[in-house]
Predict the 3D structure of the following.
Amino acid sequence: MRIEHLKKSYGAVQAVNDLSFSIEEGSCFGLLGPNGAGKTTTIEIMEGIQEADSGTVYFKEKPIDRDFKKKVGIQFQSTALPEFITVKETLELFRALYPDPRDMDEVIDICSLQDILDRDNRKLSGGQRQRMLLGLAIIPRPEMVFLDEPTTGLDPQARRNFWKLIEKIKKEKTSVLLTTHYMEEAEILCDQIAIMDHGKLLEIDTPSQLLENHFDGALVTVPHTGRTDLGIKGAVYTETHLEVSTDNLDLTMNELLNSRLNLEGLSIKKPNLDDLFLKLTGSSLRA
């Protein structure tokens, strides 16, 4: 899938501002940004739900059309469903909409729905509802899946089961577009990440390359008792801690040892996606 020069405005607000990127077949692509960055508008245009003011969305080198919607699965942040029916009846209803739906038992097993099949779909917990919505998204054996914060509300085990599903459908050459507020999830699942804010694309690359492009080394932090004359290269002193941003960890550790500073409570932190978000957008990933 590919988008070229996508633009969308709501009055004076430029929600999507000349956005271009492509998603490789069988890959997981993370579209990340703080609230209000333009992610939802971009995704809805890519899904064919909204029309762009200008620009084009391509799927297999053709502009998307009505037939494109038959080839995608979508899990929205919130979805209105027929009421007064069970989870199993909901799955059966959606399976009836597609010419070659995924086997019911496979959907149930992948999304761990065995224990809620006979429950009214209005009476599910947040995590249970997300599992059911994920099942609905994969029913049509889609070539492209849109997952908008799909693991919100899931417990750690259910979230890891979801990660296994992503790896499985990627092996089927299914492309995935994922939005998430979980840094670990983005780093583990995404082959490529695009970071956007205020409608603009800020950065796009693999998670590891993004971090390498913006950060060197690590941040070493150690409590201190007021000494600020330790002669450690790059040291910054707060009221309670000494902080050193270093690209030579061995040298910094040797300097700390030679300073005879009490190293109890020392921590070494490698920059992560949240640090990158703070640097690029001024807010954290979960803002």
Observations:
- The radius of gyration is 23 Å.
- The chain is about 30% helix and 25% strand.
